[in-house]
Write a structure and sequence with these properties.
The structure is a homodimer. By secondary structure, chain A is α/β, with parallel strands linked by helices. The first copy, chain A, contains 19 helices and 19 strands. Strand 2 of chain A pairs antiparallel with strand 5 of chain B.
Chain lengths: 506, 506
């Protein structure tokens, strides 16, 4: 910034106003503040906020004078963290420069194709916090749709890799596993990782917390071991045990993806380009070389038809080849939840039951995990083609997988048993019949109302999957909660939504 | 809403929190509030807020407990006005239902075409405040681009007309005039309307305030007469004088347009579909039958090339035909500002100078106004083809146009002279030369820093348009301001931006 431009700015005192605006940084100024009046700023203006060489773009909200002093600026939680200021620090405000890379978004909207340099510029600006939420929405919309341009998907993936940290493991083969998502209870990672690591392969797994679901893999893992590891600690765990299951948010791999997802999710667009870039960029940044990708296909899953799965697989394979990643896509049944538990601890208990070879372990979860682990083992060269699944089964049956899981947990900071909810309420069949369908969305909602994922032991335990024949009075599912208020809240929800399980009379 | 759904909601006390979030309604809840905890709500959640049969969708911002009581909800200014509550009213919160019409936006993104019923549903939801800003951005992006689908443009126009008030004048011919915008100082409406009305035609003109520019037609008109008229008062003025120039924001014509523009403008997309729908829906809703449309074409105008102008004209003509509107597009020079003043009162003074046949009246503004008025007169049948401009010239020269303008002002509530700024500062040429170019954007910015449009007499008065030969010390332009602080602010801006007028040495 030139000296002249420095003169052209305003200095105010920073205050953390205590407003959570989610991802978007927002700055609050009193309507009579000199800076607002002289700059002619109004709500929605984009303001450049800088402090000690750090600079962010924030969206302005003008507030009544009683909320703020005239010489101070309130910062939303996101702005506060991004700028790294302390209470009372003096910050400098100026007009945010127009976001240059938006011209590539416009070019795409007008039907042109965007060069790799354009996608690089866009992703760089996104990571630097230069895109407002509506600009992000425009970017996502412009590049959404079912027909991916392979070159654009590749360029976006590369740009996402290049704008974050990248791990190197000093080994020729690093295995990984990913699920494109959308299926409640599908916690195979907690089983696949220890099996693959027990096989002598390296599998540094980063996972996410729930955003709209009752639990993410990171939430479930957190009920048995610490997951917020630094990059150094993650490296130490993987070097010692060959694998880890940590929270990806703590290690800054492909950070553009997290920002894009924060706006993409509420829009609920299916975008092959963004899905491919999101998955492959994270894996490549994590240093993986061989990745098995679980694609559940079903009417309410993320991928709904086999044609869509084929299109996704085609683009994914194209991009993977060009960034030096070997992938195998495994299409799985996406028609109903996996396992019994919905909620962090309940899902961890399902996975532990499988690892412990418990008699009541959910077979569907075990079989899916073994199939994925088998592919990973073959890809990593630890078993010949066709023999991976049997090898995985051996490692599970022998207790080697459980021992490896316990060792990984110990290395991550110590293993514990998942908590058990103090309060439960079991919902019983009001008549005899067969479970014909399950409303997964409403079941997940009941789990969230009961407290998941914030309350780790809360959620829903399903006793009767599709096809189960039940008698009157037989348990259908059990609510788990940590407080009476939350249990009552979930109960009230069930009273107004009585048909979450469709019980067909015989 | 069913009784069951009623049970499933939370009632809290409304408080106007004093935060201006621009157009988007935002609701603030304390992080420990029972409703936040039990609903599992986090920032960015969409919440349905209802009060006495009225219901809006708002975006949630979670705040620290010190900002709000646990049993109250803070409402942003937009939410407060939209819901029409009073301090302490009890309001009901529940999860906002998913916006059904977004599936049509998704269909468009996936390459499908959207039926008229889909665009109707989208526009209805937008008017009802069901679209968040990111959803609006997705809609705008999906339908943007230079190649309009005629059927979609028509359906969007019809939907915009049908979701607002519509005026009927009981006459077969209602004339109107519109400029697609982008040119500072282009205040022809203040001249065209009285000429056309003096001709015996009916021209009920609604105009807009500045959003990002130093003045809109409504701002300029407001310096000489009241413009915030009710629909009834507007009707009374038009019935008496044959014309009016009022603020369109006070009469609810095609309200979807205002909402869409609030997000479209920061994105800065050129969208033929939306431009056509925006212009024609407002005019049809105002009851117009014959409209002359000013399309300035120039490198920094909204329409940049004659090809773009032709495409716009084609779609506009197609849609106009199908909604029973007769239009004539007039392509005009869009390369530099019109008249001398930039700012509400300064622009009104230019228009008054023309109406008063003053010797120093800006010829460019007069000639443009006469050309447009001539077309309007011919379209309205008050002069044969080719004779409209001469008729307009007569009405201006004879003082009939001025008399009609004064009568319109009187009918709108009384005419006054535009205010004169108490403080001015004239910038002089530092050397002899010729004005080679003018940075309109920076000149407009200086006018805004001097106080325009909030301070009506503030702005910039240009003395040397492109091509003017000046001597050292000759005035280039004059800053006008109402306070020393604002004048100083504009001055400081000029010090760091000295080359707004490009003065080529001879």
């Amino acid at each position: 910034m030139s000296r002249a431009a420095h003169q052209w700015s305003d200095i105010v005192r920073a205050r953390r106003i205590g407003i959570d605006t989610y991802r978007e940084p927002v700055i609050f100024l009193a309507q009579s503040s000199p800076v607002c009046r002289s700059e002619g700023w109004e709500s929605q203006a984009r303001v450049d906020v800088s402090h000690e060489g750090r600079s962010i773009a924030a969206t302005l909200s003008v507030v009544t004078d009683s909320l703020l002093e005239l010489d101070e600026a309130g910062l939303s939680d996101a702005a506060w963290k991004l700028l790294g200021v302390h209470e009372g620090d003096m910050i400098r405000l100026s007009h945010a420069a127009p976001v240059e890379s938006l011209r590539f978004v416009r070019a795409k909207v007008y039907g042109g194709s965007v060069p790799a340099s354009g996608l690089e510029a866009i992703v760089r600006d996104i990571v630097d916090g230069r895109y407002s939420d509506i600009e992000l929405a425009a970017f996502i919309t412009a590049f959404a749709g079912p027909h991916a341009d392979g070159a654009e998907a590749l360029a976006l993936t590369r740009a996402m890799i290049d704008t974050g940290e990248r791990l190197y493991w000093g080994k020729p083969t690093i295995v990984d596993k990913h699920c494109v998502g959308g299926l409640p209870g599908n916690r195979t990672s907690l089983i696949v990782v220890p099996i693959v690591a027990a096989c002598g392969l390296t599998i540094p797994k980063t996972s996410s917390r729930a955003i709209t679901s009752p639990a993410g893999t990171a939430d479930a893992m957190e009920t048995v071991a610490p997951i917020e590891l630094s990059l150094d600690d993650m490296r130490r765990v993987v070097e010692r045990e060959g694998g880890c299951i940590v929270w990806g948010g703590a290690v800054k791999l492909a950070p553009a993806d997290d920002i894009i997802i924060s706006v993409e999710r509420p829009l609920d667009f299916d975008s092959v380009t963004q899905l491919v870039a999101s998955v492959l960029a994270k894996k490549a940044a994590a240093g993986s070389t061989h990745v098995v990708i679980d694609v559940p296909v079903g009417p309410t899953a993320k991928v709904r038809t086999s044609e869509a799965a084929a299109a996704l697989e085609g683009t994914m394979t194209h991009v993977a080849q060009h960034i030096g990643l070997s992938i195998r896509v495994s299409r799985t049944d996406g028609s109903q939840p996996v396992g019994r538990g919905i909620g962090p601890a309940l899902e961890a208990r399902d996975a532990l039951a499988v690892l412990r070879n418990a008699a009541n372990a959910p077979a569907d979860l075990r079989d899916r995990a073994l199939a994925l682990a088998g592919i990973a083992i073959e890809m990593g060269g630890a078993a010949p083609a066709g023999a991976g699944c049997a090898r995985a089964r051996e490692l599970l049956a022998s207790g080697a997988a459980l021992a490896k899981f316990e060792a990984i947990c110990a290395a991550q900071g110590g293993m514990r048993e998942p908590p058990v909810a103090p309060l439960t309420d079991t919902i019983q069949a009001t008549h005899a019949g067969t479970i014909a369908a399950i409303d997964n969305r409403r079941l997940a909602r009941a789990a969230k109302l009961a407290g998941a994922p914030r309350a780790p032991s809360a959620g829903v335990e399903l006793h009767a999957p599709i096809g189960t024949r039940v008698e009157r009075g037989q348990p259908l599912f059990t609510l788990h909660a940590e407080t009476p208020g939350e249990l009552d809240y979930a109960r009230r929800y069930l009273r107004v939504n009585p048909h979450i399980l469709d019980l067909e009379e015989r």
